[in-house]
């Protein structure tokens, strides 16, 4: 895995969580700008998925196993989009809170991905 990409995804996810958490605090639903932020974070997570698959195909191995590593990679890619779709159904402050929670989940998944790869 690329450490710089893992850090970039984590920082972007935490920034999105803070931004959407602040919107929830201000009693605002998710807006178009939030969805652009979700798209940026999702593209970074997708890039990490591609890099992870390329590294596995190139012969590198995750220390804790390929299956668990791939499962976490796929979960990381799905975390923010799933929260975004849920926020569309809930057009209140709780939609923003849902996206903030999804972004926090992604940040935690990134830490776990790093542990799986390097242990």
- Give, in order, the helices and strands: HHHH
Return Rg in Å: 15 Å
Number of helices: 4
Largest sheet: none
| Share of helix, binned | over 70%
Shape: elongated
Arithmetic mean of pLDDT: 93
Count all strands and give the number. 0
Strand content: under 5%
Brief rundown of the structure:
Helix content is 83%, strand content 0%. The protein has helices at residues 3-25, 32-57, 66-89, 93-118. It starts with a helix and ends with a helix.
Structure overview:
This protein is an all-alpha fold. It has four helices and no strands. The model has no long low-confidence stretch (mean pLDDT 93).
Summarize the SSE layout with pairings.
Layout: H1 3-25, H2 32-57, H3 66-89, H4 93-118
Helix pairs in contact: 1-2, 1-4, 2-3, 3-4
Question: What tags apply to this protein structure?
Answer:
119 residues, mainly alpha, 4 helices, 83% helix
